[in-house]
Every structure is written in structure tokens, then in C-alpha cells.
Amino acid sequence: MKTITVGEREIREAVTMSEAIEAVRRGFVDLADGQFEMPTRTALRDGQFLVMSAHHRSTATAMFKTLSLNFERKPAIAGTVTWSETGRLDNLIADAGAVTALRTGAAVGVATDLLAPPEAGRLTLIGAGGQAPDQVRAVHAVRPLRQLTVVDADPRRAQSLIQALEPELTDVELATATDTASALRTAEIVCCATNATSPLFPESALPAQVHVNAIGAYRPTMRELPDELLAGSTVVIDELDAILEESGEIIHALQAGAITKDALTELGTALTAPTADYGKRTVFKTVGVAMQDWAIARLLADKLLP
Questions:
Q1: Could you give the CA distance from residue 194 to residue 122 in angstroms, rounded to a whole number?
Q2: CA–CA dist 268, 273 (Å, integer)
Q3: What one-character DSSP code corresponds to residue 191?
Q4: Contacts of 163 (CB under 8 A, 6+ apart)
Q5: What pLDDT band is residue 1 in, cutting at 50, 70 and 90?
Q6: Which domains does the chain possess?
Q7: DSSP per-residue letters across 153-167
Q8: Cβ(52)–Cβ(290) under 8 Å?
Q9: For 227-269, what is each residue's pLDDT tens digit?
């Protein structure tokens, strides 16, 4: 038996964002098709410790992730992703922080490719933390950017992100901002990647046509989006059971009567009907599900295990 351990550098070298997006896209379709055994994740100490698992029935493969989360440290996520197959003794253990950032970005890439207008190229990113770079990379992979504006309460952190991404974003107009409303005024795509507990902006700050990705709020006490935006948009989610248990903005909107469960469409289901008319405002809300980690772990296993 052989166990291969891979860190962030090895993960980044092995898997491109485009590969991650395609793997996660296939995973969402399989999820909708009932191919996964996937319990809702276990959250301990109000989400500071998370345990996730997914079993892909047709390949008899499984992924197990355990992590701790602390926004006061860098990196915020520490833990491991373990890959197992019933047909082989070899295992793979990967850094959970890198896998989480890559798979969360990939899900946003899948949703943006489905829901954003084909010509969309102006992205406003709210939040410049650890998840932010892969949000930009994923959107850029499916909608080549003309303009990127990073909004963060700390201008230095926003500027550091811009500088880090600049070599990857040639011919893209890059800017930072501290005023969210002004940064949203001309946005065609918005990514929210914060640990906010109340909405980041009013619905009126958004253009009439826009696609919004919200990845930051993963507990019932957290919210990034206002009820009014959810009520007036086509809302696509990663997985219904996870969203109803963990998404603060969806839970709040349901309790307020702003939306109903019937208004929520799982991404895997939406991918099977790509010609649907989604309207002028679309929202993708994700809390992250284990299938996404499985998809990245499978890519790593295919590339690195003997």
C-alpha cells in the first residue's frame, strides 16, 4: 500500500482551473443523477470544525475531508482531503485549504458559464481573502475579463490581491474600491467571498442585468445577499439539503416569505436544461458540498497515483 501526500504547490501544478471546472461540472450532473452518497457535512463549534464525505457509486470511490476554519489566521483553512478506491490499496492525502479554494472557484466557474451573459466581462469581487484568487480565476476561465474591481474594507489587502493576480490578467483593467455601491454600478458579474453576517449591499445597488455568485456564508448566522435580490432573481444553488441547513441568506429569505423552496434550482438540474430562460438577474448560492472535493481529489488521484 502506498499513500501520496500533496501540498498546495503540487495541487496547483497538477490541476488547472479549466480542468477543475470541467470535473466539478460533471460532478454536479452526477449528483443530480443520484450517483453520490453524500451526507450533509458535520459542523462542530459553529462551523469551526467541518467533516465532509462523498461516495461515487458507479466508480466505488470516496473522499473524506476534515478541516478547521479560523478567519483570524493565515491560511484560514487547515486540514486534509483523503481519496480512497475500493479497487486499489493506494491512497492520496491532499491539503484541504488548496482543494477547497480550487473546488469553490470551480463551482463558481460552472455556474457563471451557465448563468452569466455570454458577453459579460466586468467582474466586481467583494472580499480579498483566501478564497478570492480562485473566484477571479474561475470567472476569467469562462468569461474572459475586461475589468476587475476588488472591494475590501482593507485597501492594502485589495491591492495585494490585484498585484498577485496581475500576471494572470494581462489586458484586464484592474482597480480596487472601498465603496461597494459604486463598484457594483457597472458590474456584469459579482462574486461575494466574505464572512459577513448581514447583506453586503442593497438590491438597488445592482444593475438591471447581472449574475451574482455568493460563496462566503456557510452557516445560518451568516448572510451576504439581501432578501430583495433573491426574490427578484433566478436562484440556483449547489444542493438543496445543504442549503436549507447552512445558507443564512436562503434561510432568512424563506422565513421572511421572500422566496419559496420551489424557487430554488439545483445546479446539476439546471445544467441538464442549459437553454432555459433565466431572466436578467441570476444568483448562484453555494455553501460547498463534498462532491466538489471528490471531483478535485479524483483529478489528483488520476494524475498522481501509480
A1: 20
A2: 9
A3: E
A4: none
A5: confident
A6: 3-100+291-304 (3.30.1780.10), 115-288 (3.40.50.720)
A7: SSHHHHHHHHHHHGG
A8: yes
A9: 999 999 999 999 999 999 999 999 999 999 999 999 999 999 9
